Here is the input.
Amino acid sequence: MIKSINEIENKTKQLFKRISKIMAPPPNLSVSEWADVYRRLSSEASAEPGQWRTERAPYQKKIMDEINNPRVEIIILMTSAQVGKTEIILNAIGYFIDYDPSPIMVVQPTVEMAETFSKTRLAPMLRDTPALKGKVADIKSRNSSNTILEKSFPGGVIVMVGANSSSALASRPIRVLLADEVDRFPASAGTEGDPVSLAEKRTTTFSNRKKIFVSTPTIKGASRIEKFYNSSNQQHWHLPCPSCGEHQQLKWGQITFEYDDVKEEVICVKHRCKFCGFAYGEYEWKTGEGKWIADNPNSSIVGFHINELASPWKHWDEIVVDFKQAKKDGKESLKVWVNTSLGETWEEKGVGLESDELLSRREEYSCDVPENVAVLTAGVDVQDNRLEYEVVGWGINKESWGIEYGVLMGDPGKSFVWKALDDVLFKTFSRADGVPLNIMSTCVDTGGHHTSSAYAYCKDRELQRVWAIKGIGGSGHSFIKRPKRREQSGVYLFTIGVDVGKDTLVSRLTAKPDQNGYCHFPFETEKGYDDAYFKGLTAEHRVTRYKNGQTVIKWEKKSISARNEPFDLRNYATAALEILNPNINAILNQLNGEQSFIPKKIKKRRRVVSKGIS
Here is the structure.
């Protein structure tokens, strides 16, 4: 009897121990501490898979831990690439799923990007982090509440939406808002207004709400993240000088480097101290103990800015190489480098082009196509009483040559006009060395009053790579969006982000002869490059407008009566090249007889494979 009583007492004690473990509150961990204990990096999403270590990038600690600060509601993160900002978002998501269950919304610029984030970043973390595994139901399980864009877990849900979807943004109350790449958000979510404001309204019912806005910046004056950051306490990451110990930001203006232009390699890179003037290399600076210092400490909004110079995953010599290449590629590439490497906005110094300069630099071709051209593409614009077209030649590093610009008068509702276009698109052009070339890819604008005729023309000529396109203006759109299926008319319709293309085009038009993307134009009058062409090529300028309280930068005609078809057509011909995506170096080598571009066993099909290049 005594033994049985003791056994009962022992079992009772063990039961209460187990109950106490279950009922005990979790340890008081911050987001960074949770990540250091539980987070596992996945091999397909990280160059350093395995256990997360905040000490690998010490600047991340304070950013993550401010999420736990009860006095902080809004956190702004304006950064370059390669500083781990997406991992910070993922750590926050993991923390709230495992440690503080709450309804969470992740906003990406588009629905497609939200799906990509879910599949390539969130799903691997849920799979490989043991603390999260099993808390979110398997998407393939029967009766699962887990979809690509919505994942339930005990005590909460995570919803991923696109900033271009007003219905998704207004779907439900949320406590934690994570908005990624806000500078790529459209100015308005449909007709509902600013997507950031719509998303913020979802948090109003929670007194302990958290709103985190993250992005690399874009253009000064139009950048959402810059506007948010300027209203924050403006913290910058500072490191001590290896000589005098004074803390300071790592700035590109204080970088000095030696570069071998012949070998195209960096010899030496150093950062000069703004206090003592001594310069030290990357290792000496990054081994110092850094700290965040606020420029506007009285603000209740917490904001952080950091660039690639402080990143452990991007070395200074790589940044210098990127800078040299961006400078060579032209203004548009340099703008991207400033945004993504320095984490700074780009300040526009010019808003358009003048025609006289382009007209004066025309050159005598004395042939149909100059010898450095490897590929021909074309753009076609459909007007009420005519078709306009341009044929463009392309060489290495996107160097281009205007080949032929023309107008085919007639009603596009009549077949004879399209037959005349066939005579242009399927004729043979001769290079200076006698090699014949055919147009390899064509984009036809299907907007306007003759959409059905344009669709029918493109559908019948898809094998000749004649593509139907539809332009869409504004920011937040990629240059080329490839169709996943045919339209109801039976045609594949490509969507073209025309403003993105125009930004690139103007960058190339302003490039110098030794820069990538330089544009050549012929002097011969029969080729169509006259004064009217260049006025049309420069008929638009980039302007700043305000829509729904947001700054919007867009392309507009300089005057209502201006004819901008040449500008549009060069954009379409460029889109045709991007859709084709040819290996220009290999094709040029083939044309010049330096190597065989097509395997010998199928040389007899050469014309079919290379679309008419003989």
About this structure: Residues 173 and 497 are 33 Å apart (CA to CA).
